[in-house]
Design goal:
Elements (H helix, E strand, L loop, with lengths): L14 H6 L2 H4 L2 H14 L5 E2 L9 H8 L3 H13 L3 E5 L2 E4 L9 H49 L5 H9 L6 H10 L6 H20 L10 H6 L18 H17 L2 H4 L1
Antiparallel strand pairs: 1-3, 2-3
Helix pairs in contact: 3-5, 7-9
Length: 268
């Protein structure tokens, strides 16, 4: 059923009057339920309970509308009339007495209308929000690009010596960690000395591989720097083990292999 009064889509139920008023004493609990339904119907037609201005609800139709039994409906209407809560203006048409007392004051209506207007503005803003969010996302994306560009410009380039070392070292992992270790060592020899030592180690390992001898994997460059491995000696002279710990260990392994299996020259 369409509302005949569109000023408000709801009706006020004053809590103090409902809990402590005379209605709770005058009506039984099931009659109070019908009373609330009557108030809801009345709010749709300026206080009247009727199908239209000149037609009453048939009792079966009204009972069906309120989802109650006809006996309960008739008993409730009789009680409403006895307690002067309603009056019958025409046969089967009822009007809630003191209807104005159930309504909002002009001040309260103004406050509600103002609140409704504010809510409407918020809904309009929310409707526009996707476009605003898209614009904000685009601005944030541009700002992120600018920040990254500024960060790249602000970053200092690695020292020339480190760049040369990195390009020469065979195992290229953990570049940033290696750079940190490089910068920690304040007193380093000239880059030519470091690269020279590295090249000797590269040549030494290549010789081991050519001779078919065991050659361990290269250390990570950050450990090579941290341990100052450019100070290692990798040359083997006069059958004596080298001073480099790793190379010395390789020399010992090779010597034991020769002692156990004989010289490769003798077995050829």
């Amino acid at each position: 059923m369409k509302s005949k009064d569109d000023s408000l889509k709801w009706f006020p139920l004053w809590r103090d009057k409902w809990i402590f008023g005379s209605t709770r004493i005058e009506l039984q609990h099931d009659e109070r339920a019908i009373w609330v339904d009557f108030m809801a119907l009345a709010s749709m037609d300026s206080g009247f309970i009727r199908a239209n201005p000149v037609t009453a609800y048939p009792v079966p139709q009204l009972a069906g509308l309120l989802c109650c039994k006809e006996a309960l409906l008739l008993r409730s209407i009789k009680r409403f009339l006895e307690t002067e809560k309603i009056k019958e203006t025409d046969p089967g048409i009822y009007y809630l007495l003191n209807w104005e007392e159930f309504q909002l004051s002009d001040r309260q209506r103004r406050r509600i209308c103002a609140h409704a207007g504010l809510m409407a503005e918020k809904l309009d803003m929310m409707a526009e929000k996707p476009d605003a969010m898209a614009e904000t996302a685009a601005l944030n994306k541009d700002k992120s690009r600018v920040d990254k560009s500024i960060k790249r410009i602000g970053q200092k380039n690695p020292p020339d010596g480190f760049t040369l070392f990195w390009s020469s070292y065979p195992k290229k992992v953990k570049k940033q960690n290696t750079l940190k270790e490089w910068e920690k060592i304040k007193e380093k020899p000239a880059i030519e000395i470091i690269i020279g030592a590295l090249n000797k180690q590269i040549a030494y390992r290549e010789q081991l591989q050519q001779d078919g001898k065991f050659c361990p994997e290269w250390q990570d460059p950050e450990r090579w720097i941290k341990n100052r491995r450019w100070e290692d000696e990798t040359e083997v002279q006069d059958g004596k083990p080298p001073t480099d710990v790793v190379a010395g260990r390789l020399w010992e392994i090779e010597q034991r292999r020769k002692n156990r299996n004989g010289s490769p020259d003798k077995n050829s």
